[in-house]
Specification:
- By secondary structure, the chain is of the alpha+beta class.
- About 35% of the residues lie in helices and about 20% in strands.
- It contains 2 helices and 8 strands.
- It has helices at about 1-10, 20-70, and strands at about 75, 95-100, 105-110, 115, 120-125, 135-140, 150-155, 160-164.
- A 5-stranded antiparallel sheet has the order 2-5-6-7-8, with helices on one face. Strands 1-3-4 form a 3-stranded antiparallel sheet.
- Strand 3 and strand 4 (about 115) form a beta hairpin.
């Protein structure tokens, strides 16, 4: 029986990988890791900013709904927080917080549907946790521009200036 195994596996030769083969495999894995890590981190930042944009959309929809309900009367932006799932201007998991300029209101003309905010920069959403603290998103509304409502983002914690 041992003779048969020796014939199959070679006469006393150890079978295994050579040092060159192992180095090539380590090199390939290292290259893949070097390429994949920045891509993965970029995907994480995109996912976090998409999370923030969806919160902004929910809040803007709530602000508009409150404006329509008030029909031509100025309504405070902060009144829409609860409807958008942001009690006190903070998400339930405290990952995001909303800041509104003092006295920011929105009025919706019920005949034309025209929206008139008291300030073009309606509200700002900021990340509060270590993984999203560099994300700042601003809802900018200018009725003379096309499109009138634009989200401006800064993914490095600064002041949002460019549409996202």
């Amino acid at each position: 029986m041992f003779k048969t195994l020796r014939v199959l596996f070679g006469k006393g030769q150890d079978r295994g990988f050579t040092l060159i083969e192992l180095l090539i495999v380590v090199l390939i894995v290292g290259i893949l890791a070097a390429v994949a890590a920045p891509l993965y981190l970029g995907y994480l930042k995109d996912a976090r900013s998409a999370e923030g944009k969806s919160i902004m959309g929910a809040l803007w929809t709530s602000v508009q709904a409150n404006g329509v309900a008030a029909c031509g009367t100025n309504t405070a932006v902060s009144q829409a927080f609860d409807r958008a799932g942001l009690p006190g201007g903070v998400t339930a998991d405290t990952r995001w917080s909303v800041t509104v300029g003092a006295g920011n209101t929105v009025s919706v003309n019920c005949d034309s549907g025209a929206i008139t905010p008291s300030s073009n920069d309606v509200f700002t959403l900021k990340g509060q946790k270590s993984d999203n603290s560099s994300i700042v998103i601003l809802m900018h509304y200018d009725s003379t521009a096309t499109p009138a409502g634009v989200l401006k983002c800064d993914l490095n914690g600064g002041t949002p200036t460019q549409a996202c």
